[in-house]
Amino acid sequence: MTTTHNRRWPKVVLQLAFLIFAVIQLYPLVWLVFSSFKTNLEITGSNVMGLPNEWRWANYDYALFKANIARNFLNSLMYTTVTVIISALLSAMVSFAVARMKWKLNNVVLTFFMLGLMIPVHATLLPVFQMLKMTSLLNTPWALIIPYTVSALPTTIFIMIGFFRALPGELEEASVVDGCNIYQVFFRIMLPLVKPAIVTTSIFTFLSAWNELMFANTFINDPDLATITVAINSFKSAYATEFGPMFAGMVVATLPMIIIYLFLSNQVQKSIIAGAVKG
Amino acid sequence: MKKVNKKRMNLTLTVLMAMSMLITACGGNNGNNVNSEANANAGNTGKTTAAEEKLKITMWSQFADPNSKDGGFVGFYKALEATKAKFPNVEIEHVGVGGESYKTKVKAASAANELPDIFYTWGGGFSEPFIAGNRILSIDDLAKDGTLDQIVPGTTDNFVFDSKLYGLPINIATAQMYVNKELFEQAGAKIPETWDELVAAIEALKAKGIQPIALGAKDRWPAMQWNAILAIRMAGVDAVNAALTKTGSFDTPEFTEAAAKYKQLIDADSFGKHFVGTSYDDATNMFLSGKAAMMFMGAWVNGQIEDDNSLVKGKVVPIKFPTIPGGKGNADEWFGGSGETFVLNADLKNKERIWEVYKFFIETMSKEVFLAGSGSSAWKVDVGDTSQMNPLALQIGELSSSATGFSYWWDQMLNGNDTESMFGSLMKFVAGKTTPEDYTKELQSKVNQGQ
Amino acid sequence: MHQVFGNKKAIAVFVVPALILYILVGFFPILQSMYYSLLDWDGIQPAKFIGLASYKDLFFTDTYGMDFNHSILNTLYLAVLSVFMQLPIALVLALVLARGVWGEKLYRTLYFIPVLVSSSVIGVMFLKIYQPEYGLLNTILNQLGLSSWTHDWLTESGTALISVMIPIVWQYIGYHMLLMYAAIKGIPEDLYEAAKIDGASSIRTAFSITIPLISPILKVCVIFAVLGSLKFFDLVFIMTNGYPTPETSVPSTLMYSSIFNRNMYGYGSAMAVFMVVECLFFYLVLQKLIRTYDDKEES
Predict the structure, then answer these.
(1) Of C241, C270, C234, C227, nearest to C51 (Cα)?
(2) B340 phi/psi in degrees, rounded to 5
């Protein structure tokens, strides 16, 4: 890239490569939106990849109004938001203690939390069910928020520790000299600095909680508390799946994630600039 | 499960009677029968309904989508509404979970002892552990209130364990050959009644570039259906039922010949070249869009075939599966039966009251499912006006009214573990990795290893 | 200084709340699975204690013809693909995007879309791409006159495994890219300015400054990629459910089928426990193996 003549060509080639890859990456979303307007016959054979033959808004009518997805949508939004907030705070606290504080067991505690990355989720269904039954939390929002939070912890902690470790040590030492206590160091100095990590992990936590189906199906019976994944899953029947409405429901479920992703990933950028000013 | 075989005979005879009753009842004399089942039930419920406090009943089912056009779903929701209307003092809290997730939910809830009062289940192997684990209420005593007299005898076979009854049947589902008449005319093929005619039709269709048969083997159970009906034709229903209930064997010359016939069809590209990688949905829509001329499938497709979106509406006729010369089975032996129903929680309080609700609900659903075109009723009810019914369902009712034997879905007769082993061997076979001889030997050793 | 950062009470305040929740809902299931794995249990009826019999059957006898050993190999293969294909691609994208390229924001958004669109959509889409009759792949090959190259991609033994793995590797490129991107964005600008003054090329800057500085996150990515591969489930479940066995089966699909289809809770739990031990082994080995920039400085 540093050759003096032809400096432009590599850039054009690079842009072209980026553009092609962008089209590939965008395609699943386009495919989903197209499919949400199609009939079963189109989706299962006659017109799988292209534009719908006819834009069937009836699929959206079916998914949104007949199936009353709005309430499930709000439930999901509530559970996911609470999960994101709790897990981000708890993980940041643990990560800070493990990465920046001095105690003997810190690596043991880290490995202990990492065990959570290793257990296959389907094996936990019954034990978690029994735990929730014992604590009378079944069929309440907490029956989902707590497991979602816990399953987000290992991933989030692991990512955050990487970020905490990458921070230069002088910052906190200087702030202690300035008279900050440990809580002030954490909340006022460190948290703002790892904001990119918090935002990034929040995206992941939001994604996995929003898309979760097995726990949502099993731990909640009350239709008024059900999540959007459960509502979409109800378009599946044993012998005839209504693909159009199912995809329409999925479009509705995917939109908030795109909006939240856009919002949060801009936050990553902004927080870095803000952090640099403070630092 | 051991008692199943003897009772099969009953089923056969009485289904025959009941079906002819249904068909004749369809004719015209529905004037005096408008509220017949409501009246019949009034006697049972009258003594309890008046001054009772409200009773809450929890119910789980796989019928998750109230707007589905699937006959089973339509029947379920109509019956649910009718039950709510009939028992104003009873509040039914229904939770529907779609697809395979339902089984996961029920199994987890069962392990934690959190099952609802009434739940949907499959008879035979699926229910075995629930029964053995005391999760399901035996309704032997409750059903002695005369209910059993209203039921087509033999339809309860899949709900009987150790001679005790655990559920009332809803409907009798059969699998039959669906034939696209238009495509057959184009190819100049005769609608087959024998194996040779079937082979000839396949060749004629292939010569015209039409795929003879739609089969979505990727989902495994459609591939099982062809094995099952060929085995029924070759070995007869009794031998098939014996093998499935571990009182007989899969490793017999007839089973092997059935597998050889299956292989003959596969090798002739009767199912196309790609059936192993084709899903059930893809295969069904191949048939619905007129790309394949035949499909051997359960009656649940009736609704889709006659749907306004279907490209083959009015062009399809159901037929009995062709006979095979030299086979022990005849054309009136069917793949199907009664196996899906609702059961009651073993820890039920208010048994008697819930029983009344349950009975009414099942009977109503059996009628509504029949009217919605997804299988005949397992109850001796007068269904009333059938003029609006799916024509395919009516024709199937007529065809099967002369049935002499039934053998039910393999993946429900067998328990979960044996089902997976059966599917494993079957898929190796249809992919051409094992010979018919090795396949039937493997079935016997893997599925019936307990013998 | 040491007093402030060694404050036991503060450590407890930071760690204990998460620890309690995690023990109840995260660690307890692991113990429970270990216990289940010693039982012959269908999930409902009273269980029978059988010791390590399930483990022995899993690896040696294989009564049920599941070929668990082969499924482990499949996931190891996936882990190799993830580390040596997925991560390098993600790293290159993150490096180029984060150091400024026209349309950075747009690309950053678009490249993450496969992660945002849930696996159930990606799975169904790839089923349609691979579909042998009308799927995109075979259609294109046929139109190019390459009919002999067409396959029943997901069901033929030769192509099934790689066909399943391509979407998996592809879907999570965006995931790792985002992690790396956030880490690169966290590097103070002045470090780069020094390099610029020295006249270092972009590639040299990447290797001498960026990569060492984000090495803690790269380590996280490698460990996620490996552990994620070893217990991978959803796209395999949606696309093939592990069939044909053993070509596309993975330990998770076999475990799911053992527990929920075959009603063998003990047998399935033995698989789950094996997966935990396997993951723990790889986790510890990788921790030792990958000495990050940070660790070196500490030691």
Answers:
(1) C270
(2) -110, 135
CB contact under 8 A, C275 and A120: yes
Give Cα C88 to chain centroid, integer Å. Answer: 15
Q: What are phi and psi of B119, to 5 degrees?
A: -145, 155
Q: Which three-class secondary structure state does DSSP give residue B210?
A: coil
Largest CA distance in chain C: 75
Of the CA atoms within 13 Å of residue A164, those in its CB half-sphere come to 24
Pairing of strands B316-319, B171-180: antiparallel
Q: Residues of C with CB below 8 A from A97's CB? A: 10-11, 14-15
Q: What is the DSSP string of A65-101?
A: IITTHHHHHHHHHHHHHHHHHHHHHHHHHHHHHHHHS
Option in C44, C131, C257 nearest B130 (CB):
C44
Q: What pLDDT, on the 0 to 100 scale, is given for residue C292? A: 59
User: Which residue is it, tokens 């996936």?
Assistant: C78
Q: Classify each residue of B15-51 as buried b or exposed e, where b means 16 or more C-beta atoms within 10 Å of its C-beta.
A: bbebbeebeebbeeebeeeeeebeeebeeebeeeeee
Q: Which among C216, C255, C283 is the nearest to A162, CB-wise?
A: C216
pLDDT (tens digit per residue) in C100-143:
778 888 898 899 999 999 898 999 999 999 999 889 999 999 99
pLDDT at residue B93, as a whole number: 95
Collect all residues of chain B within an 8 Å Cβ-Cβ radius of residue A60: none
Considering Cα of B253, then B255, then B256, then B262, what sign does the dihedral take?
A: positive
Min Cα distance B150 → chain C (Å) is 33
DSSP characters for B108-145?
Answer: HHHHTT---SEEEEETGGGTHHHHHTT-B---TTGGGG
Tokens linked to C118 = 């849930």
Residue whose tokens read 């460190």: A190
Q: Which of B104, B130, B427 sits opposite C260 (nearest CB)?
A: B104
**pTM recorded for the entire structure:** 0.91
Give which of A108, A265, A120 is closest to C233, Cα–Cα: A120
Q: What is the pLDDT of residues A240-269, one digit of tens each?
A: 788 899 999 999 999 888 988 888 888 777
Task: Please say whether the beta carbons of A63 and C149 come within 8 A.
Answer: no
Buried/exposed code over B242-265 (b: 16+ C-beta within 10 A; e: otherwise): bbbbbebbbbbebbbbbbbbbbeb
